[in-house]
Amino acid sequence: MTRPSSSTSRPRLADLGVPSGAFARGPENAITDVRGVRVGHATLHGDGLHTGVTAIVPDALAAERRSLPANLSVGNGYGKLVGATQLRELGALETPILLTSTLSVFRVADALLGHLLATPAHARTTTLNPVVGETNDGFLSDIRRRAVGEEQVAAALAAAAPGPVAEGAVGAGAGTVALGYKGGIGTASRLVEVAGRACTVGVLVQTNFSGTLRIAGVPLPAEELLADEPAQPVGNSCMIVVATDAPVDGRQLGRVANRAVFAMRGVGADYAQGSGDYAIAFSVHEQHGPAADDDLSPLFAATMDAVEEALINSVLAAETTVGPEGRTAHGVPIDRVRERLARAGAI
Length: 347
Description:
Blueprint: E1 37-46, E2 49-58, E3 68-77, H1 84-90, E4 92-93, E5 97-101, H2 105-117, E6 131-135, H3 150-159, E7 177-178, E8 181-182, E9 185-194, E10 197-208, E11 214-215, E12 218-219, H4 222-225, E13 237-244, H5 250-262, E14 276-283, H6 297-317, E15 321-322, E16 328-329, H7 334-343
Parallel strand pairs: 5-6, 13-14
Antiparallel strand pairs: 1-2, 2-5, 3-4, 3-14, 7-8, 9-10, 10-13, 11-12, 15-16
C-alpha cells in the first residue's frame, strides 16, 4: 500500500479560472470564512489504512451559548449519522461536528462525548447530543479495524484552526472515492446579502459518491480521462456541512440543508440506492429574530454554488491513493481537465 503523493501543485476550482458565479468567494474560500468556525484533521496513512477524522468546531458553542440553530437534510438515509434525530427535532446543534469512517463513527461519537464532558462547561451535563457523520472508506482502508478513536478525535479537535483548510486525502477524506476518482475533503464559501445584511456561507464536504464528474457543466467521465487505467471505484455517500452567519433559525436551516443536497446533482451525482447523502446546516448568528423567508433565496443560491465548488475541490485536491491488495483510486488528471474545460469555453 502507498501513501498519496506529496505534490502541492494540484489546483482548486478557482485556480482553474472557473468563475464563482453570482456571489464572490470568501477570503479563504473555505468554511472557516464564517467567523468563529475552525477545522482540524487527524489522518492515518499506512499499515493498511487510509482513514481519519475531520472536526468542524464552532467557537460559539461556549459555556454561555450551549447550542446553535441547526438542521438536517436527508437526501438518502443509507448512513450512520449519530445525533440525527435530535438535530432535526430540536433544530439545534450542541457539539462540534465530526466526520469519519463508517465503522469508526460510534467510537468517534463516544470519544467526542468524553472529551466534552471533561470540560468545565459540561461539568454538570447529564444529556448531550454528539453529531458524527461518516462515509465508507473500505475500498482503500481496512475499515474493519475501526482504527479511528479517542486519540485521533483529540488530535483533530486540538488541530482545529481558522484560515486555510487542507483538502483531498486528509482526515475523514483520506480513503474516500468520488465520481470515479479519488475523493476526499473539500471546502468553499460565498459572500451573500441576506435581508440587507452582509453574510457568509461556508461549506465543507466529505465526498464518497458515484456518478459522472461535471465541472462548469462539462462532463469529465473517469472512463475517458482514465482510459488507460482499470475500472474505477464507486463511492457510496456524501456528508455536507454548511455554516453561515446569516440570521436564520432552525426551521430555515432545514431549507438551506435541502439546497446543499440538491447541489450534488450539479457535479454529476447519481444519488445511488446505497448512497448516504446528508447535509447539516448551522448558523453562528446571535439570534435577534430570523430573516423573513422571502429574503432567503440569495442564501439558497449561494449555498448551492458553494457546495458545488467544495465537492469539485475535494476531487481536484485528492492524489492517487493505493490501498490494501493494490486497490487504487486515481486522482483526476488535471491536464486533461484543463483541456476539456478550455475546449468547452468554461475557462
